[in-house]
Amino acid sequence: DKKVVLITGCSSGIGLSLAVRLASNPDKTFKVYATMRNLAKKERLLESVKGLHRDTLDILQMDVTGWQSILDARDRVVEKRVDILVCNAGVGLMGPLEVQSLDSMRQILEVNLLGTIQTIQAFLPDMKAQGKGRILVTGSMGGLHGLPFNEVYCASKFAIEGACESLAVLLQHFNIHVSLIECGPVNTDFLVNLQKAELGDASLQQVDTQTLGLYEKYLQHCGSVFQNAAQDTEDIVKVFLEAIQSPSPAFRYFTSGVMPPLAKLKITEPDGSRYISAMGKIIFSAEEQ
Ligand code: NAD
Predict the structure, then answer these.
(1) Cα(9)–Cα(86) distance, rounded to whole angstroms?
(2) Residues with CB under 6 A from ligand 1
(3) pLDDT digits (tens, 9 = 90+) for 127-169
(4) C-alpha of residue 12 to centroid of ligand 1, in Å
(5) Rounded-to-integer distance, Cα 34 and Cα 126, Å
(6) What is the dihedral of CA 148, 149, 152, 156, to 10 degrees?
């Protein structure tokens, strides 16, 4: 029997690559339900799978912020079960905190936090009844340590850590494994899709000049990190596969192979001051180019 996988946020990025990889598995081990909010964006996925995958790939509409949309997608799973649920959909929000509207902050929390939790809620009862299951969640370094100008994004990703860890403790009694795939920067549409305050934006006129100067430095830092150190989605997909194929998967996987030094610093120096000064130096002390 094929393993039934349902993935959220498959119109681009990590979700798309994972769907393609699993659907094209040579021994056809997986039946993939690649879900996306907007089906008009399915062409990219279809082009990437190359050829027909009628028996291993199905594309479904699913907006993780809509309970009914999640239930409708669940009802369209022919096998009537999902063995591996991948909660991947997410968006970023970048800029000085004082310019973020309540609406945009709500939107981020709706997608990243409540969207992930709602998706899990919808599939959990069936997994419990099956007595087995896997829940994989795309995690972020922004869920392990704070990043300036990403306060609400980090809040949403920290919150996911708490939700998943709490669930993992319970779900070991149901043979359901929860795993976070912790990503650093990845080459995807993430930077294009995120809500970002641009330096010329009218909304930034109310912000003090010191903050704006630091924001400019942050944007340069962010740009160079993505240019120099971002992983490709294929690297991320390998780590997902490792978790999927492991008979007893870990709770956390780091896509770089090890916990990055800055994340470790937060644990080895629990009063937090070392992390805060180290991150500040890295981001704000960069030489002007
Ligand atoms: P991406 O923007 O290419 O993909 C995100 C996907 O989520 C998009 O296809 C988008 O349409 C979808 N999405 C957004 N709102 C949705 C909704 N309401 N319902 C369903 N789908 C929705 O970026 P990505 O990098 O592939 O992001 C995937 C995940 O990886 C996100 O959770 C992101 O936070 C996380 N992540 C990304 C990076 C990075 O550097 N790219 C780093 C760490 C973590």
Answers:
(1) 9
(2) 8-9, 11-15, 36-37, 63-65, 88-91, 111, 115, 138, 140, 183, 185-186, 188-190, 193
(3) 999 999 999 999 999 999 999 999 999 999 999 999 999 999 9
(4) 8
(5) 19
(6) -60
Q: pLDDT tens-digit profile of 42-57?
A: 999 999 987 767 799 9
Q: Which two tokens stand for residue 277?
A: 């000064």
| 179 within 8 A of 249, measured Cβ to Cβ | yes
How many angstroms does the Cα of residue 161 sit away from the middle of ligand 1? 16
Identity (one letter) of the amino acid at 211?
Answer: T
Rounded to the nearest angstrom, the distance between the alpha carbon of 15 and the centre of ligand 1 is: 8
Please give the Cα distance from 196 to 189 (Å, whole number): 13
How far is Cα 264 from Cα 285, in angstroms, rounded to an integer? 21
Instruction: For residue 7, count other CB atoms closer than 10 A to its CB.
Output: 28
Residue carrying the six token digits 């008979």: 247
Residue 114 to residue 171: CA distance in whole angstroms: 19
Say what the ipTM of the complex is: 0.99
70-115 pLDDT, tens per residue? Answer: 999 999 999 999 999 999 999 999 999 999 999 999 999 999 999 9
Structural tokens at position 263:
């994340």
Instruction: State both tokens at 164.
Output: 């998943």
Token pair for residue 73?
A: 């997608």
CATH superfamily of 3-198+231-260: NAD(P)-binding Rossmann-like Domain (3.40.50.720)
Cβ(116)–Cβ(64) below 8 Å: yes
Catalytic (active site) residue 33: no
Neighbours of 97 (CB within 10 A): 14
